[in-house]
Design a protein that fits this description.
The protein has 125 residues and is of the alpha/beta class. 27% of the residues lie in helices and 33% in strands. The protein contains 3 helices and 8 strands, in the order E-E-E-E-H-E-E-H-E-H-E. The relative contact order is 0.24.
Length: 125
């Protein structure tokens, strides 16, 4: 499992011209699920995202999204697993099959919400 996390003042996901997820200050997390990932990977990524100290207070990055009362926007992103070491066409063989990836991504969202964090999502696939 891999995540790219960005601190945002606001973020949204639009599908077919309609906003399906929107947050104010918080974190935008693109999450890619790899073959062989399981609940341990979910637990790790959830713990990291919830506790990343990337928000400033007194000129230092000391606060997490939880500390600032922020929100999360979680977006499935299998392209994070693309391997471009050979040639110019990404190889996505490391990405988990869609049904497995959706299950683990949903587990991430459920766990983050279980920590009391407001979580919005995109549309899987």
């Amino acid at each position: 499992m891999i995540a790219v996390v960005q601190r945002v003042s606001a973020a949204s996901v639009t599908v077919d011209g309609e906003i399906v997820g929107s947050i104010g200050p918080g974190l935008l997390a693109f999450i890619g699920v790899a073959q062989g990932d399981g609940q341990e990977d979910v637990d790790y990524i959830v713990r990291k995202i919830a506790n990343l100290r990337v928000f400033e207070r007194d000129g230092k990055m000391t606060d997490s999204v939880r500390d600032i009362g922020g929100s999360l926007l979680v977006v499935s992103q299998f392209t994070l697993l693309g391997d471009v070491r050979r040639g110019n066409r990404p190889d996505f063989m490391r990405a988990a099959p869609p049904d497995e990836a959706k299950k683990l991504l949903d587990s991430c969202v459920t766990a983050l919400r279980g920590l009391g964090l407001p979580v919005e999502t995109g549309v899987f696939g």
